[in-house]
Design a protein that fits this description.
Blueprint (H helix, E strand, L loop, with lengths): L12 E3 L4 E4 L5 E2 L1 E6 L2 E12 L5 E6 L2 E5 L20 E7 L3 E8 L4 E7 L5 E7 L7 E6 L22
Antiparallel strand pairs: 1-10, 2-3, 2-9, 4-5, 5-6, 6-7, 8-9, 10-11, 11-12
């Protein structure tokens, strides 16, 4: 790349080793922001944060309105995301101290590239690309996964039964 090239870091994508969270000493917060469109990298309507209030959890907002939450961290995964349990591709971790709180993940399988992306329509997508293969990115996980994952759709103390939809 020449010296006149401008590289704009993606604000909608998170990769292994990056932190999603807040440093309480400096006030620095690292979060994802959706793009306005596929061709317009200016901030879109959605953000995805590690919320340190109470027990840490990941939260997606549209503007200031909460749209989705992962449930609190239980030491292995977020309680509302059972499909993030132990797997052979990546390991999730959460650091929570007086200094900072952040969520991160480490790759366990070097034959796979993994990224998390916040789409312009408010879907958190985890994509994989098996190295040595040419088919490109493969969708691995999404959140919210269904209607019941939408924040507060069932009200306080609501339960869900997917068989009734």
């Amino acid at each position: 790349m020449g010296s006149s090239a401008l590289v704009i870091p993606r604000t909608d994508t998170w990769v292994s080793g990056m932190k999603l969270g807040k440093n309480f000493e400096t006030g620095l917060e690292r979060y994802l922001s959706s793009w306005k469109s596929n061709d317009d990298p200016s901030p879109g309507d959605f953000t995805y944060h590690c919320d340190p209030t109470g027990y840490p959890q990941n939260v997606m907002r549209k503007g200031s309105v909460k749209q989705y939450r992962s449930g609190s961290w239980n030491g292995v995964r977020f309680s509302g995301v059972p499909y993030l349990s132990l797997n052979a591709i990546f390991r999730c971790r959460l650091v929570f101290s007086d200094k900072e709180v952040y969520y991160s993940y480490d790759l366990l399988n070097s034959s796979v590239i993994l990224r998390l992306m916040l789409s312009q329509n408010g879907v958190v997508q985890r994509w994989t690309w098996p190295t040595g293969q040419s088919q490109g990115w493969v969708l691995y996980l999404t959140a919210p996964t269904d209607y019941c994952d939408t924040y507060s759709v069932c009200g306080a103390y609501g339960t869900r039964n997917l068989g009734t939809f």
